[in-house]
Automatic annotation (TrEMBL):
Pfam family, one: 7tm_4
A single GO cellular-component term on record: plasma membrane
Keyword terms: Cell membrane, G-protein coupled receptor, Membrane, Olfaction, Receptor, Sensory transduction, Transducer, Transmembrane, Transmembrane helix
Record's keyword annotation contains Transport: no
Name recorded for this polypeptide: Olfactory receptor
Location(s) in or outside the cell: Cell membrane
Family from the record: Belongs to the G-protein coupled receptor 1 family.
Function: Putative odorant or sperm cell receptor. Odorant receptor.
Database matches in PROSITE patterns: G_PROTEIN_RECEP_F1_1 (PS00237), G_PROTEIN_RECEP_F1_2 (PS50262)
Annotated TM spans: 28-49, 61-80, 92-113, 134-158, 197-216, 237-260, 272-292
Amino acid sequence: RNMANFTAVSGFLLMGFSAKPELEVLWASLFLVLYLVALTGNTLIIAATSMDDSLYSPMYFFLKHLSFLDICYISVTVPRSICNSFRHTSSISLWECILQCLAFTLCGSAELAMLTVMSYDRYVAICLPLRYEIIMNVNTCIHGILAVWISGVVSGVMHTSATFSIHFCGANVIHQFFCEVPQLLKLACSDEYVRELGVTGFLSLVAFLCFLSIGFSYTRIFSTVLRIPSAEGRAKAFATCLPHLAVVTLFLSTGVFEFLKPHSDSPTALDFLLTLFYTVLPPTLNPMIYSLRNKAMKAALQKVVKRRKATSFAESL
């Protein structure tokens, strides 16, 4: 039955931002700028946290992995969309669609797990400072990263296998710039998407538990910070927490928005624009959020940029 499904469908048509070629190129150019900003920002954070000895702590270890995840997350959808727009083509093969769906779900789920682990790290740092080095040791950090990637792989495989085990009917037109699961389910024959709903329900429960964990961590963090007697101490504690809280809020709000927004049969330009909120915006803004509020990160980034300039100057001599 599954083999019949794979042989029956050879590919899909991705509907871009506009039917007009000149507008399509304009959107692709905007995508390219945002993609380059995201790549540059996240690469700089990876370089800074890898090269600066003062940033060798669990917080920056997790931040480095978050930046790597962000690069993967935005690279799954945006480059393909840019290429399609500049080539004025909209086709994507079945296997490319399966891989894109798998990678997008994997990265999205892993990012949520990473933010959960990072909120626990901040909770231990602020609420249990004397035990921080004991609790957040090397083994804990490695196990945390393994849990992040395992949860991402499991979520991606479950979601993708459930989605592509159904039969597709109709024109095989996806009203989105990438292979989005809700759009794929609209192409399902009859009620075959019921099994996918079961998987979606399970993954939504896991996501909700992550939300609860993050909420619990930040409730405890803020109650602890507000009890710190000195204003300087409170400011320092908030400085390490607020960037992470901003990133969490950005990612969760855009993710929840995607689940709740109505999926029309013929999406408008506004629907496509809103999709940017959860596909492109978090990876692009995360590096800026982390570097704007964090003095240590700013100093490390300046070192990386200076070192790069010095290397370029030496090569030009």
